[in-house]
Design a protein that fits this description.
CATH architecture of the largest domain: 3-Layer(aba) Sandwich
Number of domains: 3
Number of strands: 23
Largest sheet: 6 strands, antiparallel
Distance between the termini: 40 Å
Shape: elongated
CATH superfamily of the largest domain: von Willebrand factor, type A domain
Mean pLDDT: 86
Helix content: 25-40%
Length: 452
Amino acid sequence: MQRKGKNPLICNMRNLYLTNRFFGLFGGVAFFFVLAYIVPVWFPVALTFFMLAAALSLADILLLFQKNISLEAERKLPKLLSLGDANRIYLEIKNNAPRPLDLSIIDELPVQFQQRDFKMEIKLGAGQEKTISYELTPVVRGEYSFGLVNIFASTKFNLAQRRFRLAAQMPVPVYPSVLQMKEYEMLAFNRQTPQDGLRKIRRIGHSYEFDQIKNYVRGDDYRSVNWKATGRFSKLMVNQYEDERSQQVYCLIDKSRAMKMPFNGLGLMDYAINTSLAISNIVLKKHDKAGLITFSDKIGATIKADRRAGQLNKILHALYKEKERPLEANYELLYHIARKLINGRSLILLFTNFESMYALDRVLPLLRRINKFHLLVVVFFKNTEIQNFVKKEAQTVQDIYTNTIAQKFLSEKRAMAQKLKQHGIQTILTRPEDLSMNTINKYLELKSRGMI
């Protein structure tokens, strides 16, 4: 954690709040007075009960507003929040009072979460300090502003509460998921233990980048034996090759209305943005060049493929600023940009979505042209809501009809993927939550096969 907010607590008598127990107590007093009106003999009992309740309430309020009653609170935020991930926020609370207190804590969350029932309750002894935490999952990029931390303190009588406010309004930006980027980097480069999802790809043939001559060990390809070196050292020596480097990899993100469909609160464009950051990081770690182009009815961010030190940071900031557009994507403009901006044969990862065969047929000629000059991978999405609906058992004739239409929709998605493959275009049809994993697998597969 690299950012802290800590300011003096603002407290005065206006911060007095009466609890439900207080109103319940005086509701009982009122009941006795009503009973005394009917049966006058109860009036002394009601009056005594009232005096005891008033004295107890006054004592509770005086205990709360003594000068030695004070709290310290500190909110700790990360430098930035990750889009679509559970980000943990920490609150450090310290009780400086000479007696234990019951605390109800209400943190004013950013308006983007629209969460109005956020509340935590803890007990702190005299001089005790405690750290509590909670998680937030932002689904919209941009700047989020945390408000005040409201702490309502009460004694064991719990007839009144005193409010303490931490005046610490703190802005924090929500960027594409840096947590996912680091997670997939670890999985992709973990050679010791195979992980679920990221699969090992069998290498086909040799790369052309010579690395070194080394001793033969069991499992090496015998076709790589260097016979001259073997004769010189009187033991088997083999040539070792490494992956070709400095290949260009571009992420092309469709930000038109076709990518606004939300799944689990996150739009398809934001899934593509998180994946673009993760794959760009792995591309740069593999010593290739990463680039970015966004488009809809017009071209958005354009970052030329490079592998300089600040390239990933440049891509991160460009992705942070991208916004959806309510218009159709202009693939003719995309083709023009692919011919003019992207120099040399490159791997193009096109993140888009097709909901009908007609939509695919309309842009297929342009995709085939792009695929002639570059290695194109079209990435589009399964509709998981429809998949879940199909799994439900039909109860009525209307359910059978709706289920049939849903199955037809899913089969059309598979037909679109098959049609792209028939025209020699690499294709990924994936669930939104599996997008990063499947895209990284495809990149590693194409690289191992020497296609880029």
